[in-house]
Amino acid sequence: MTARLLLLVALATGCNDASPGTSVRIALSYPGDLGLDTADVTIGQATKPTAISHELLLLLPDELDGQNLPLEIWGKSHDQRAAHGVTTVTPKRDQTVDATLELTVCAPRCEGDMVMGCGEPVACAMGCSSDGDAHCITATPSNGVDATLVDTVTGTTTIAMDATFDTDTGAITDGLTRAPVKGLDAGIGYYQAAAVTADGVPLGVFVFHDLTVATGVTIRFTGTRGAVLLVGDAATIDGAIQVAGGSDGVQSTPGPGGGAGALPGRRAGGCGPGADGGRSGVEDGGGGGGGGSTSGGPGGRLALRGEGGPSCIPPLLEPLMGGAGGGRGGLGAAATSAGGGGGGGAFQLTALGSIMITGTIDAGGAGGDAGAQTVIDAGGGGGGGAGGGILLEAPSVVMLGSGILAANGGGGGGGGGAFNTNTPAPGANGGLSTTVPPQGGAGGEELNSGGSGGGAVSPGLPDVGNDGATNGGGGGGGIGVIVVRGTRVTLMGPSSPQATRAPLRAPR
After folding, report:
1. Which one of 86, 145, 226, 479 has the fewest beta carbons within 10 angstroms of its own beta carbon?
2. How many CA atoms are closer than 13 Å to the CA of 412, on its beta-carbon side?
């Protein structure tokens, strides 16, 4: 009986034995005393299991016409590899090409951290396991991400132009195009995962086999779900990953999985939101900064100030979450109050092989908006958003000296007023500095500027918003969390806050 393997998605439908289309028919021989019952068949980069037979028919996509492809078959007995063979085939469009392959007895085995057996030895970054079929140990991704999703993708994806990833729909736009669908599209997988605990955020998972973000390219993530890149082998980040709050030019917008900054009629969001500033007569308090791994700074004007949000991001980013949004400033007589800054996003990069970073990853909070520029009852400044979470994990993680990881809190917005030479200004976004904290915005009165955001310099605590004569500045946002999990980790570039190192999760 002939076994038919549908190896790739791009197959013609309605094929039958009389007209199979582009295909390879394999005459397979193997020792009968091995008790082989299944086979793993790999052609090019596609692998499928099948019941073993002395004749196999592989249906292939027409675009493989004329390509010289490696064909490898492992014969298995009770799910353990026992015989192996490899050859080369050249499919022809709308024709069946015949091939002959003999499997020879071969069982892989562990020798130290190497898988030995047929073909070239394979070095295992996390060691070799003899549990069942000898294999390299791999890590279990954090936050419930399914490592087997990488089995759906092949090849190398190089992103050479700026692109925007939507974590809620799977759409990729601008320099790279992917439809808003679940599953596989344009060679890229997209799946959704629930939060692993009630206080975490749901995840949007983009799946690649090998991924390179080229130098000079910025990848920006939008959406309410935390952003996850799952890579089957090697991830190389030479460009910029942007999951910061306010990256769309609107200060209250959070990064993916972060909390929104407060606006009129909407309180701040996230795990530790900053409180809104109060109002009494012509006096207005500044909004509190959002909480991250530290609490946010309170706004100015004492009793009218909005309190900073509590610390809330877990130290190992389990569950994955972003920073909280800042509170809005007291309204005053202006048409609208100063909004709080959005929190930095939640970002996880899991590679089953290696991560190399020469570029940047920014999960900073946005600065709070400034109060109005008016003489009477101008309103308080908005609180800064907290920095978010960055989680990197792979057996090998290397960041060279040009790389930067940052999850700084945003600065508080300046209080409103018109008694000063300064125009009220928003607080600075978290940014990529690892030496200077994000500054609060200048106030419209003397001494009512916003507080600096947490981050950049130790200990990374946000400042309190300044008081001013009548209107307070916003408090700074708390700093976020950066975690690097790996067996071999080299971090030559700076990070703010300092990255926490941890081992990979329990391997399978």
Report:
1. 86
2. 50
Q: What is the average per-residue pLDDT within 340-358?
A: 96
Q: Which of 71-75, 220-224, 349-353, 376-380 has the highest mean pLDDT?
A: 220-224
Task: Tell me which long-range contacts 63-66 makes (C-beta under 8 A, separation of at least 24).
Answer: 63/10, 64/22, 64/91, 65/22, 65/91, 65/92, 65/93, 66/90, 66/91, 66/92, 66/93
CA angle 236/237/241 to nearest 5° reads: 150
Cβ neighbours for 421, distance < 8 A, ≥ 6 positions apart: none
| pLDDT attached to residue 58 | 87
If pLDDT is split at 50, 70 and 90, which confidence band does 335 have?
Answer: low
What's the N-to-C CA distance of the chain in angstroms?
A: 36
> Looking at residue 340, what is its pLDDT?
97
At 300, the pLDDT band (50, 70, 90 cuts) reads very high
What are the beta bridge partners of residue 77?
80
pLDDT in tens, 4-40: 344 433 333 334 445 578 889 999 999 989 999 998 8
Looking at domain 3-106, its CATH architecture is Sandwich (2.60)
Q: Do the beta carbons of residue 454 and residue 367 sit within 8 Å?
A: no
> Where are the CATH 2.60.40 domain residues in the chain?
3-106
The candidate with the shortest Cα–Cα distance to 124, out of 109, 140, 139, 135, is 135
Put residue 224 in one of left, alpha, beta given phi > 0 → left and psi -120 to 50 → alpha.
Answer: alpha
How many residues are given for the chain? 508
Report angle CA 261, 363, 480 to the nearest 5 degrees. 80
Are residues 228 and 257 in contact, defined by beta-carbon separation less than 8 angstroms? no
Strand ranges (E), 210-270: 210-213, 218-222, 226-231, 234-237, 240-242
In sequence order, the 6+-apart residues with CB closer than 8 A to the CB of 148 are none
pLDDT digits (tens, 9 = 90+) for 61-90: 888 889 998 999 989 998 888 999 999 999
Cis peptide before 459 (omega within 30 of 0): yes
Partnered with residue 205 across adjacent β-strands are 191, 228
